[in-house]
Amino acid sequence: MDTMDTVVVGAGVIGLACAYQLSQAGREVMVLEQHSAIGTETSARSSEVIHAGLYYPTGSLKARACVAGKSMLYQFCREHGVPHRQVGKLIVASDKTQLAQLHALKRQGDNNSAGDLRILSAREAQRLEPELRCAGAIYSPTTGIIDSHSLMLALEAALENNGGELVLASRVSRVEASTSYCQLVMADGGWLQT
Ligand SMILES: Cc1cc2nc3c(=O)[nH]c(=O)nc-3n(C[C@H](O)[C@H](O)[C@H](O)COP(=O)(O)OP(=O)(O)OC[C@H]3O[C@@H](n4cnc5c(N)ncnc54)[C@H](O)[C@@H]3O)c2cc1C
To answer: Which residue's CA is the nearest one to ligand 1's atom 30?
Structure first.
């Protein structure tokens, strides 16, 4: 039976990011992925938006992680040449009945430190997007777009550069945990201990 310091199960964007971060901290990391390629499940279906952090309740883990993760993601993209663009986003009120909701969302975004959000009048929004018909909008300048597959390839490369290992076609079928170690039972009958 092989022994590893740290095993991450799943090579989607989250598993790869966790593995990379662990390898940055000096841990010996192995990523086990059941398929023969990385990022073929949920991570292959992302809309590839880098969210600013407006939508989650203030103080929640999601709100804090979204805002902190956005800065870390932009920095990682710059340092590792991952295609991305901070294009900004308009969140629109289609008619006047939605304006109160729009202002409430702006307040929540401000409380979450989601970036320099601005309320735009219908005319100001139209100046940015001439075809737009709305009653008003929030402009979110820190929202962006990203090539998510390039991100995963960059995470994999950075992980391997730190000595981490990705093992494809390796499905974990069971984990047996005790207070001092974990044993991973592989679908092919093999065992791995951490
Ligand atoms: C339609 C849609 C649009 C989205 N748009 C955005 C967006 O614009 N911006 C954004 O930030 N987020 C977006 N998301 C959310 C984002 O895509 C997910 O949060 C993210 O991809 C989750 O990554 P993950 O690594 O947790 O999961 P996954 O990508 O599903 O990775 C899990 C991996 O684990 C592997 N695995 C599972 N079980 C085992 C096992 N027993 N043994 C070995 N391997 C195993 C799987 O094969 C898979 O590769 C969107 C999601 C959807 C569905």
So the answer is: 42
What tens digit of pLDDT does each residue of 144-171 get? 999 999 999 999 999 999 999 999 999 9
Same domain as 61, residue 39: no
For residue 65, the CA-to-ligand 1 centroid distance in Å is 17
- Whether 169 contacts 38, CB under 8 Å: no
- Which of 44-58, 83-97, 136-150, 177-191 is predicted least confidently? 177-191
Per the structure, the complete domain to which residue 11 belongs is given by 1-48+147-194
Pocket of ligand 1 (CB under 6 A): 9-15, 32-35, 39-43, 45-49, 51, 171-172
Amino acid at the residue 52: A
Torsional sign, CA 164, 45, 109, 71: positive
Whether residues 64 and 94 share a domain: the answer is yes
Cα-to-centroid distance, 17 and ligand 1 (Å): 12
- Which positions are annotated as active-site residues? 51
Best mutation site among 47, 72, 76, 170 for ligand 1 pocket (most ligand atoms within 8 Å of CB) = 47
Q: Dihedral (C-alpha) 133, 139, 142, 147: value to the nearest 10 degrees?
A: -10
Asked if 122 and 73 sit in the same domain, the reply is yes
β-pairing, 49-50 vs 29-32, is: unpaired
Q: Is the pTM of this model over 0.85?
A: yes
Question: How far does residue 108's CA lie from ligand 1's centre (Å)?
Answer: 27
